[in-house]
Amino acid sequence: MRNLVQQIIVGCLGLSMALSGFAADPANVGKVATQLSKAQDLIQARKFKEAYKLLQPLEFEQAGNLQYDYLLGVSAANAGKPDRATIALERVVATNPGYGDARQWLGIAYFQSGDMQRSKKEFNTLLAQRPSAQVKATATQYLAAIKQQEDANGLAAKKSQPYLLGNVELGYGHDSSIATVPDAYSSAYIASIGQAPPPDKPTIPSNISDNFAQLNLNVEGRVPFSTVGTYSFLSVDSNSRAYNSHSMMNSQTFNLKGGVSVTSGGDTYRFDVARRGYRQEGTEAGYTNNSSQNSVTGDARLMMTERDYWAFSLQYNTPRYSSSPDQDTNQTVLGTNYMHIFAREGSPLVYFGLNHTRDKAVRELANPSPLVASTDVSRNTNAIVFYTQYSFIKEADVTAMWMKSSRRDSKPYARAYVAELDYGKDDMRVIMLGVNWRPAPNWIVHPQWMNIKNDSNIPLYGFNKTEISLNIKREFN
Q: Is the Cβ–Cβ distance between 172 and 474 less than 8 Å?
């Protein structure tokens, strides 16, 4: 009904203008015809602004003249005035829908003015009329652009509403030293303690290797704020590992985290609290190393340039060990890292990180001694990390990581009541090589090799292990 009324009004306007034209001065009619001819020449010469400047003053008198409205609409659409173009071209289409390529230019003018629904309607109408190959190509091109913008708007609308994202990851691999203890545990125990393990204390299995399967799940819910890039979040992670022949070493890690993330320009600030739990299957005889941990973390990631990022973090943890409460500490972690992305093919990047961890024993001893059946596990640990990544093809990255950490016990006899070595000293080195291959959107295939070696002045804590694994991840967002 609205369109019918609009056509009647435009038709009446056109009739009124036509009648006034009959009464017009013949000399004036000739002048207008000359101006329209000149405007047409300017349009053909792609001098659209000049054509629009020539035609615009005539609109009061010539509105309703098909040739005038068409020329005005085309020149306005190409002169950056889509609002004026739509008005003129609507008059043309309302009175003569098949006049020239007025409908095509009307669709373009709607697109320029941001009226995607009307633009899509005009181009779909054009395609239904079986146009020429050139017109069909133009209409198809604009419809594709409209769809792309609608998809982007839909994504933006989604991001303004609460949403979920996550991933599922399955893996299989081999671990050369499951218990991360010396190959000869009993001998190392004697070397460290000065005597054999007590009969009532089961010997930790050493020198055992096995294949394993793992399942990692992650789900995160986000609630965006009004400020773009700012949201609150709640995430749940579950990581499970099961060994083929040593079920007592099967384990599961569960992590619940919530907080807020704020983005300002290229900088990101994040604060979260977390609860982490670790469970090892063990046996009736023991071997469990169950623990839980509460954490509070704040970090800032600053964009120094488009390719340089510098970050700082502060974390406070409370690791607690249910089967070994003498290992409980209150832990503070300070960290900083720097990342640079090179402006070269493959976008290679390098990452350097430094961390300082201070563990303060919950059960401190004033005068630790090898004669006292208790320990004081206060310690300081410093770590340096180097990571690099290179995309050798569009669908795959090769990654490498090297980490070195140094642990220094703050109190004597902190571990295993060592009689001869007052202060424990550990130096750990980790090397990792991997590939991230994306065979399809949201799918990642990740083969990885990793070696961990810990050198300690307490033989009981030295070990060397290698893991080889292949993981397949499916992301959801």
A: no
pTM, 2 dp: 0.65
Sequence letter at residue 290 = N
CA distance 45 to 346: 45
pLDDT at res. 400: 98
Enclosing H/E stretch for 396: strand 396-409
Q: CA 85, 86, 91: angle at the middle one, nearest 5?
A: 105
- Please list, residue by residue across 365-376, b when 16 or more beta carbons sit within 10 angstroms of its beta carbon and e when fewer do: beebebeeeebb
Residue with tokens 């000869």: 184
Which stretches of 114-230 are DSSP H helices? 116-128, 133-159, 185-193
269 DSSP assignment:
E
From the number of C-beta atoms within 10 Å of its C-beta (0-12, 13-18, 19+), residue 62 rates as: buried
For residue 41, what pLDDT is reported? 86
| Spatial CA neighbour of 168 closest among 398, 449, 448, 477 | 477
Handedness of CA 342, 343, 345, 347 (dihedral sign): positive
Answer for the pair 463, 176: CB distance below 8 angstroms, yes or no. Answer: no
pLDDT at 18: 41
Q: Supply φ then ψ for residue 124, to 5 degrees.
A: -65, -35
Give every CB contact of residue 145 below 8 A, 6+ residues apart in sequence: 111
Q: Buried b / exposed e across 441-458, counting CB within 10 Å, b at 16+?
A: eeebbbebebebebebbb
pLDDT, tens only, 108-120: 999 988 888 899 8
Phi first, then psi: give them for residue 18, nearest 5 degrees.
-65, -45
Tell me the C-alpha distance between 83 and 467, whole Å: 65
**Encoding tokens for residue 39?**
């405007």
Tokens 């198809």, located at residue: 140
Distances (CA, A) of 50 to 29, 42, 361: 21, 7, 82
Write the pLDDT tens digit of every residue in 72-82.
888 888 988 88
In this prediction, residue 398 carries a pLDDT of: 97
Task: Identify the band that residue 475 occupies on the pLDDT scale cut at 50, 70 and 90.
Answer: very high
Residue 443 pLDDT exceeds 50: yes
| Contact indicator for 444, 475 with CB cutoff of 8 Å | yes
**Which pair of tokens denotes residue 305?**
């340039």
d(CA 282, CA 305): 50
How far is C-alpha 73 from the geometric centre of its chain's CA atoms? 44
